[in-house]
């Protein structure tokens, strides 16, 4: 990360496109996300990342996951593509200070490469990630079909879906690098009808054009994967962050990348929750490209405390 990139990643927005509710979105906001993922290399296996000027109280989990995957990928030959990651959120991140990513080159085999990453702040681990990379190989191929849903352009924008709820939707006032269109009822609206099906479906895409960098597209997808996944748990119980007395946080996060894709094209995020117990909720998600290809699978367990 150059000084210019660092400045771009942390600068506040001015003179940028605004959504219908006055929140920054579009290419400048996406460019800042790209800058956030452009880590500074401070040693052979040590990288440093920053958080945006407008951040939640804790660092957004998708940001840490995306940055950690960038750090791992920077130590792997580009012809080896990431096919899976498994991670744990250990402590809440502090957005006011940089995050140091320490990469352990666990193994470099003939076909697979394994990396382990520890994210550190204030001398303590806040996040760990293990990722596996593989050379492209032919083999068996099948997938579950994509659900039949309305096209993204026929659905309300995020600003339209959040109209009248801005003070209740936790991240609604933050800049939007990801264009989100809810297929199912948004959880802040669904709660008004009480408990429902443990399902959440949204169309997503990077809100602009991304460079032709396979690792970057995967890291943007990892970032986006943490945005709506736990909605499937919340709608099952008719509750939502900030509106009801529910405290939540991501505990772990796993992803499998099945096929190549572009994160600046539309993809369907089809999420469901098979179980919640012990103040934890489990959610699974499937990413489908616009043409119906299953490109990634996600599983996350989140902390869900009713106060």
Automatic annotation (TrEMBL):
Q: Residue limits of the Acyl-CoA thioesterase 2 C-terminal domain?
A: 182-303
- Keyword Lipid metabolism applies: yes
Q: Which UniProt keywords apply?
A: Hydrolase, Lipid metabolism
Question: Which family, according to UniProt?
Answer: Belongs to the C/M/P thioester hydrolase family.
Its recorded name reads: Acyl-CoA thioesterase 2
Reaction equations catalysed: a fatty acyl-CoA + H2O = a fatty acid + CoA + H(+)
- Gene3D superfamilies, sorted: Acyl-CoA thioesterase, double hotdog domain
Which domain of life does the protein's organism represent?
Answer: Bacteria
Q: Please list the GO terms describing molecular function.
A: fatty acyl-CoA hydrolase activity
Name the SUPFAM superfamilies for this protein. Answer: Thioesterase/thiol ester dehydrase-isomerase
The protein's assembly and partners: Homotetramer.
Q: Which residues form the Acyl-CoA thioesterase-like N-terminal HotDog domain?
A: 58-134
**PANTHER family noted in UniProt:** ACYL-COA THIOESTERASE (PTHR11066), ACYL-COENZYME A THIOESTERASE 8 (PTHR11066:SF34)
Q: Does the keyword Hydrolase apply?
A: yes
From the UniProt record, give one GO term of the biological process aspect: acyl-CoA metabolic process
């Amino acid at each position: 990360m150059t000084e210019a990139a660092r400045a771009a990643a942390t600068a506040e927005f001015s003179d940028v496109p605004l959504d219908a509710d006055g929140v920054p979105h579009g290419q400048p906001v996406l460019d800042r996300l790209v800058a956030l993922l452009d880590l500074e290399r401070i040693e052979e296996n040590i990288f440093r990342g920053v958080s945006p000027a407008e951040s939640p109280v804790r660092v957004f989990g998708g940001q840490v996951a995306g940055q950690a995957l960038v750090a791992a990928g920077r130590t792997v030959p580009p012809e080896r593509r990431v096919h899976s990651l498994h991670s744990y959120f250990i402590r809440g991140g502090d957005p006011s200070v940089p995050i140091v990513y320490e990469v352990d080159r666990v193994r470099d085999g003939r076909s697979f490469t394994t990396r382990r990453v520890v994210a550190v702040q204030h001398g303590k681990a806040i996040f760990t990630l293990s990722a596996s990379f593989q050379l492209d190989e032919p083999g068996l191929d099948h997938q579950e079909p994509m659900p039949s849903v309305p096209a993204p352009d026929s659905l309300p924008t995020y600003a339209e879906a959040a109209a009248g709820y801005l003070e209740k939707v936790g991240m609604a006032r933050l800049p939007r690098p990801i264009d989100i269109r809810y297929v199912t009822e948004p959880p802040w609206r669904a709660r008004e009808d009480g408990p429902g099906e443990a399902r959440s479906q949204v169309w997503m895409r990077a809100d602009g054009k991304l460079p032709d960098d396979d690792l970057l597209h995967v890291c943007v997808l990892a970032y986006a994967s943490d945005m709506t996944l736990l909605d499937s748990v919340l709608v099952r119980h008719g509750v939502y962050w900030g509106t009801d007395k529910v405290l939540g946080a991501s505990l772990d996060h796993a992803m499998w990348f099945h096929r190549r894709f572009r994160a600046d094209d539309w993809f369907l995020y089809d999420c469901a929750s098979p179980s919640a117990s012990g103040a934890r909720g489990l959610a699974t998600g499937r990413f489908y490209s616009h043409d119906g290809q299953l490109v990634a699978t996600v599983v996350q367990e989140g902390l869900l405390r009713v106060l």
